[in-house]
Design a protein that fits this description.
alpha/beta, globular, 5 strands, Rossmann fold, five-stranded parallel sheet
Length: 186
């Protein structure tokens, strides 16, 4: 078997124990052998300001280099006020500027959203999708991943407890691996 695809996972929630982070960790355990998922931290990214491009802050440079080196990106988000967390939007902005150096351009992506509510952060998922369209990321269309009642999702070891949700997430990850194979620029 060839090397697994290097998937950079961006977690929109900054809280270290967030459900979104826990979901990504559980997904990394469920991932097929064709995917290696690792979280890329966005906590240290200062707010994007074009005035800082002349001497880009080290966290921006490190973040951009890590994403450039990845085969694909998994965006994981919760929903704040029916949209995406500011830190996630800022990470997208940091990576897309200056426009000629857009690190997202052509990189395969998938989105998973989650919330304790019944809609699974549907609004945030759609807003991330809109941003990714703007930065030219081919984004997995199906299956869409909205994980509801995430506060009741995990067992004591951090794994996804519900067999149906675990099966769905496995299918989502398999579809993402196939999507990367079809859309990744070599």
């Amino acid at each position: 078997m060839s090397e697994p695809y290097d998937v950079a996972a961006i977690v929109g929630s900054l809280r270290r124990g967030s459900f979104t982070r826990r979901l990504v960790l559980a997904l990394s355990e469920l991932a097929p052998p064709t995917l290696k998922i690792s979280i890329v931290e966005i906590r240290e990214l200062s707010m994007y300001d074009a005035d800082d491009e002349a001497a880009a802050p080290a966290p921006w440079v490190n973040f951009r280099n890590r994403i450039k080196g990845a085969d694909a990106v998994l965006f994981a988000t919760t929903e704040y006020n029916r949209s995406i967390p500011g830190a996630l939007k800022n990470a997208i902005d940091v990576g897309s500027r200056p426009k000629a150096a857009n690190i997202w351009d052509g990189k395969p992506a998938a989105i998973v959203s989650c919330s304790p509510g019944a809609l699974g952060a549907f609004g945030a998922n759609q807003h991330v999708r809109q941003c990714l369209l703007s930065v030219n990321m081919p984004t997995l269309q199906q299956p869409e991943a909205y994980i509801a009642h995430v506060d009741k999702l995990f067992d004591s070891s951090g794994a996804i407890a519900n067999p149906g949700t675990r099966e769905f997430c496995g299918k989502f990850l398999e579809a993402f691996a196939q999507w990367i194979g079809k859309t990744r620029r070599v």
